[in-house]
Design brief:
This protein is mainly α. The chain is built from 4 helices and 2 strands, in the order ααβαβα. A two-stranded parallel ribbon has the order 1-2. Strand 1, helix 3 and strand 2 form a beta-alpha-beta unit. The longest helix has 21 residues. The termini are far apart.
């Protein structure tokens, strides 16, 4: 099988999975995928689809700083992108402290 045919089959299969995820009626999606599997492409298509459907509060979270860096470039202005830790810390800082101390 030539490299071009292999790539075409891979792309068709990836598009089929991406379409299934986008067409899912679940509002929250958890994506588990390894390096080079098209996460940025998937997230971009989900964000664009959400924005077209008037859902503008897109959040992409990762445990990996390098993925956050890449997603910030790829999803520029389409989603809030951060590590799970920094997102949680920011949300905690929004909550007013009750009483004194912890």
């Amino acid at each position: 099988m030539s490299e071009e045919i292999y790539y075409k089959k891979f792309k068709e299969e990836a598009d089929r999975y991406i379409d299934a995820i986008i067409k899912s009626d679940h509002s929250k999606k958890l994506v588990l995928a390894g390096p080079g599997t098209g996460k940025s492409t998937l997230f971009k298509r989900i964000c664009v689809n959400n924005i077209q459907n008037k859902k503008t509060n897109n959040i992409a979270l990762s445990f990996i700083n390098e993925l956050v860096f890449d997603l910030k470039k790829d999803l520029h202005k389409l989603a809030e992108v951060s590590t799970l830790h920094s997102f949680a810390l920011k949300e905690l800082q929004k909550t007013p402290a009750k009483g004194q101390g912890y």
